[in-house]
Amino acid sequence: MFNSYDVIVAGAGHAGCEAASAAANMGSKVLLITMNMQTIAQMSCNPAMGGVAKGQIVREIDAMGGYSGIVSDKSMIQFRMLNRSKGPAMWSPRTQNDRMLFAAEWRNMLEQTPNVDFFQDMVVNLMVENGKVCGVKTGMGMEIKAKSVVLTSGTFLNGIIHIGEKQFGGGRLAEKAATGITEQLVSLGFDADRLKTGTPPRIDGRSLDYTKMEVQDGDEEIVGFSYMDIPKPTKQRCCWITYTNQNVHDILKTGFDRSPMYAGRIDGVGPRYCPSIEDKINRFAERDRHQIFVEPEGWNTVEIYVNGFSTSLPEEVQYKALQQVPGFENVKFFRPGYAIEYDYFPPTQLKNTLETKLVKNLFFAGQINGTTGYEEAACQGLMAGINAHLAVKEEQPFILGRNDAYIGVLIDDLITKGTEEPYRMFTSRAEYRMILRQDNADLRLTELSYKLGLAKEDRMQKTEKKRNNAKAIISHFEKTSVEPPEINELLLSLNSAELTQRQKLALIALRPQVKIEDLNKIPSVKSFLEPFTLEEREQAEIQMKYETYIAKELELVMKMQRLEDVVIPETFNYHKLSSLSMESREKLTKIKPTTLGQASRISGVSPSDVQVLMIFMGR
Prior knowledge:
The chain is of the alpha+beta class. It has 4 domains: about 5-200 and about 340-450, FAD/NAD(P)-binding domain, CATH 3.50.50.60; about 200-340, Elongation Factor Tu (Ef-tu), domain 3 (Beta Barrel), CATH 2.40.30; about 455-550, Arc Repressor Mutant, subunit A; about 565-615, Orthogonal Bundle (DNA polymerase, domain 1), CATH 1.10.150. The chain has 21 helices and 22 strands.
């Protein structure tokens, strides 16, 4: 029935979909195996993509030729650029999405991708020979050979769903858990552990009183995620904001003795930065209210996602508490919130390609590595798919550094530091966030992806045009001066000091109060800027305004690169260096860093340990 494949991807969530499309678009013959063909790219939790740092990741995926940005743009019902009041390093795009349309668009794009085959079944076992993966066994007893396997199991590995005192097996509500894989991997020498995550109730929007809530509209200007010209919606759906209160908290507390988290029925650690409502009440006891975001699930549905009310309390407690939230007095449930506990494999067992250290050509991506979030999963899938293809072709691996992308930060954090709680990306995790902005992901990554054969010619041409046009604008501003009478009225209206003599446009653009679109009101500037897109103008403005900061960050990158350039052999024996601390020797032996730079980021490895290694390496 099946011939041998180059790459098998087990699991069709966000990681699996990106892995399959990346490997296929690079030329591998791919089989995507999923337990349910109707839930490909399912948004298991909130119907939204992006947000703080996550939006940067989606733009990076798009710049690399991945599909998440395009699918998000095609299925958006609302767009917002978060943190516009801050500097551009903090700007983060976010879309509210139509849940069903998102999955349908993803499936359509996968079906239109040559080299991708599909099969509905459960992978229950990996075929491993001489330390190398060579295929999979399925629940229906089929053995399918492959040169490389990407495992993207999400929350399905031995998943247990908790609602109050009830618990039952499942990877999502009404979907069975996946079994067999964990036990086999442990027998092969892998360490496994448990994590948990949760989701809020889904409710009937017709039962809500929106007049008691604050309206949250989308941005007038829809930027979107994709750098390609994806049509944007002509209208948007609004969201709403409401708040819990002391009555809500008091009712929720009555169920704490039946909470699986507080009763000790859940072993796994939950996400620190997306806590359940009961966890918020417990951890932030001094607060008398918490924000609730009321988010539509799509264009043509009344289903509402209650963002901020994730819970695993008994359903009757959830219901009574929600009735006390303004606007929810007559609420009707579609389904209650629940927690899910699942197996993951500490990611220090991976190389920086996401290939496992123990089994050659076996890759892990997504929540199996201890991450949380669609975006974190999708970017891992992209990188695992790329490297699974390269491994099959016996070509050099593709690795992004911490100075290249948020994707590089995420993977380096996982394999170097590991995680004991669901890992979520934040801008604060990136030390080079001034150069890792959402606006320049294409300028950073598209050429790299194009050389791999992933990003296509049209994308590369568009990136080059943007780069060249931004340079042209900067060059013009550096050479062109304006006279005081031309600009002083504008400067006064912007609360900026008037000119006393002619001045270069580039110097005026440095002023914090002045934006390039303000200067576009000057007739001579307007005639010059007219041929350029808003995106090209914004790129030029950011580069001019933040030139000094960007230069300082690039200087730091160069200093750190010296450590990254020192390669440590995989077989290096740290125990022979008695001048290293015992903790350092143990951590270095376990993680096996590939460079001195990675070694320096391992918890427990001190600067003096790094100095010892530098001396030993002849540096």
